[in-house]
């Protein structure tokens, strides 16, 4: 599989992220003028109330932000709303080469970022759309690997996603169709973490129809992904047959209910007994598996129902398990431990004895040996 990573505004194939942007240098005045023309009247727009519905807006202004951008309805609307709200951000774009318009979307994304003096990081990765659910899973893995790489390399400490109310409701319907409970049925949070990176979803209280109306009223360019109309994908089927019509009639009530479900979920889950960097300590309880699930998501892995059952079986017997070759999960009588899975470390005799006395599971020990400050904290529990 071929992929490439490049960045800046405009001709990113020829300029590295740290080189001066020749396109912007040549037209700095026109960029400022275009920005003024597009944004100066926003406060008076009848759609300006959308800015007031963005969640965690003030907190976003305190981060170095990277927006996951596709140039579809949702991310395009969020791009302009964040710009109007004076949130500083750059963009990351993935071109899967799945449609004839894929390259046009990439070109337009570069052009928009150049116009607003923003960096754009682009990864080209050819995927086969015909593989259905496998495509969705692989595309997601490619995206998040790309985002993690950019954040680590460029120093971004926050990711912004354009998920909106329709996404939340579609997920909810998909989960209850499988027989899930409250915790797994409310999947998206306005603010969460992915390792050390803060994750924000400012649009969760806003319907897609509102975002579309915002763009159309202002004549702003966006793209429609026709693959979203393909009902062989479960989410598309639920959207077309159930979700859109229901939200059109009962959207305000759905938004209120989903926020209440989130509160219920957080009350049921409780909190980690201890967390630091990529390490999570969970007190043994009836809801411990939900927190294991949450910790794995923070570490970049979404666990399946089958894996969840395997974890439950192993920790019930005070054993360890490795998830997706990346995460170690273990337990003793008091706690469940979740940490990155490390191998090949020669641990000292004194460390091994202290770990044994503290009843730290064997697969957790290499990570703690590499992070002595976390190990020292655990010895106080």
Quote the average pLDDT: 86
> How many strand segments?
12
| Element string (H = helix, E = strand) | EHHHHEHEHEHEHHEEHHEEHHEEEHHH
Shape: globular
Describe this entry's structure for a reader.
The protein has 381 residues and is α/β, with parallel strands linked by helices. The protein is built from 16 helices and 12 strands. It has helices at residues 22-26, 28-39, 49-52, 57-60, 73-84, 102-115, 133-154, 165-178, 182-185, 208-217, 234-269, 288-298, 305-316, 349-357, 365-370, 372-378, and strands at residues 3-7, 65-68, 89-95, 120-125, 158-160, 191-194, 197-200, 274-276, 279-283, 321-323, 327-331, 335-340. The strands form 2 sheets. A 7-stranded mixed beta sheet has the order 1-4-3-2-5-7-6, with helices on both faces. Strands 8-9-12-11-10 form a 5-stranded antiparallel beta sheet, covered by helices on one side. The protein is globular and about 65 Å long. Residues 9-37 and 39-44 have low confidence and may be disordered.
Overview in brief:
The chain is an alpha/beta fold. Helix content is 48%, strand content 14%. The strands form two sheets. It has a seven-stranded mixed beta sheet with strand order 1-4-3-2-5-7-6, with helices on both faces.
Features:
single chain, 381 residues, seven-stranded mixed sheet
What topology emerges from the helices and strands here?
Layout: E1 3-7, H1 22-26, H2 28-39, H3 49-52, H4 57-60, E2 65-68, H5 73-84, E3 89-95, H6 102-115, E4 120-125, H7 133-154, E5 158-160, H8 165-178, H9 182-185, E6 191-194, E7 197-200, H10 208-217, H11 234-269, E8 274-276, E9 279-283, H12 288-298, H13 305-316, E10 321-323, E11 327-331, E12 335-340, H14 349-357, H15 365-370, H16 372-378
Parallel strand pairs: 2-3, 2-5, 3-4, 5-7
Antiparallel strand pairs: 1-4, 6-7, 8-9, 9-12, 10-11, 11-12
Helix pairs in contact: 5-10, 8-11
């Amino acid at each position: 599989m071929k992929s490439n990573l490049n960045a800046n505004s405009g001709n990113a194939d020829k300029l590295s992220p740290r080189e001066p942007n020749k396109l912007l240098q040549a037209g700095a005045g026109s960029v400022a003028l275009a920005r003024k023309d597009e944004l100066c009247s926003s406060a008076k727009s009848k759609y300006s109330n959308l800015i007031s519905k963005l969640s965690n807006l003030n907190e976003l202004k305190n981060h170095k932000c990277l927006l996951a951008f596709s140039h579809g309805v949702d991310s395009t609307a969020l791009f302009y709303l964040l710009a109007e709200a004076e949130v500083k951000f750059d963009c990351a774009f993935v071109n899967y080469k799945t449609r004839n318009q894929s390259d046009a979307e990439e070109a337009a994304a570069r052009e928009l970022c150049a116009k607003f003096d923003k960096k754009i990081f682009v990864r080209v990765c050819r995927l086969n759309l015909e593989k259905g659910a496998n495509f969705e899973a692989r595309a997601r893995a490619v995206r998040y690997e790309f985002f993690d790489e950019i954040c680590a390399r460029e120093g971004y400490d926050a990711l912004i996603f354009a998920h909106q109310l329709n996404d939340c409701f579609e997920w909810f319907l998909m989960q209850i169709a499988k027989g899930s409970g409250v915790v797994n049925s409310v999947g998206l949070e306005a603010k969460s973490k992915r390792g050390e990176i803060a994750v924000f979803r400012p649009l969760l209280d806003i319907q897609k129809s509102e975002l579309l109306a915002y763009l159309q009223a202002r004549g702003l360019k966006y793209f429609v992904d026709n693959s979203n109309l393909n009902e062989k994908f479960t989410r598309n089927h639920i959207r077309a047959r159930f979700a859109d019509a229901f939200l059109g009639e009962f959207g305000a009530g759905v938004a209120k209910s989903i926020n209440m479900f989130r509160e219920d979920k957080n009350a049921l889950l409780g909190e980690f007994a201890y967390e630091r960097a990529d390490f999570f300590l969970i007190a043994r309880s009836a809801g411990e598996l939900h927190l294991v699930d949450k910790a794995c998501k923070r570490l970049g892995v979404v666990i399946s129902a089958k894996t969840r059952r395997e974890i439950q079986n192993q920790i019930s017997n005070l054993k360890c398990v490795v998830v997706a070759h990346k995460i170690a999960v273990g337990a003793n009588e008091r706690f469940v431990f979740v940490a990155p899975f490390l191998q090949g470390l020669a641990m000292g005799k004194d460390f091994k004895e202290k770990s044994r006395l503290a009843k730290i599971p064997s697969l957790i020990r290499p990570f703690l040996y590499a992070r002595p400050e976390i190990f020292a904290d655990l010895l106080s529990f």
